[in-house]
Amino acid sequence: MSEATTIPTRTAPASAAASPAHTGPSRRTDLTVRALQIVLALFLAVASAGPKLVGHSSAADSFDAIGFGDWFMYLTGVLEVAGAVALLIPVLSGVSAIALIGLMIGAFITQLTVFDGENALTPVIFLALFAVVAWVRRQRTAECVALVRGRI
């Protein structure tokens, strides 16, 4: 028994060793962010864009105070619906979140300058949620950019 006995160890299959490191979010993170995207899309399309697109008096009064008129209210509503739809399309979800961050920055500035900061925290909260989506979906954003570059 002078020979050393070794216990064979399991090694990863060759295909796993050759594949790159896991770059996407975990399954739990993916599902959580997917649920967040759905909730954000529903809020944007129904609660936020809905009143703007039907010209509800609460939305119209706010946009009259801004001074750009009804066209800007409808434009904002259309942008919110487009962002909501794009949040639900996997390859567009990260890009949509980034665009909606821009929309929230504009809403924040408007809240501060036109409405004296009355509801300035609301766009900040949504900005943070969109930032989470953009960060987790950054690989999808890279895929979208690669698709666009390949076609141009």
Describe the overall structure.
With 152 residues, the chain is mainly α. It is 73% helix and 0% strand. The protein contains seven helices and no strands. The protein has helices at 14-18, 27-53, 57-66, 70-87, 93-113, 121-136, 138-151.
Structural class call reads mainly alpha
Number of helices: 7
Rounded mean pLDDT score:
89
For the largest beta-sheet, the strand count, sense and barrel status come to: none
Q: Report the end-to-end length measured between terminal Cα atoms.
A: 70 Å
**Binned strand content:** under 5%
Helix content: over 70%
Give the gist of this structure.
With 152 residues, the protein is an all-alpha fold.
Fold blueprint:
Blueprint: H1 14-18, H2 27-53, H3 57-66, H4 70-87, H5 93-113, H6 121-136, H7 138-151
Helix pairs in contact: 2-4, 2-6, 4-5, 5-6
Provide keyphrases for this structure.
152 residues; mainly alpha
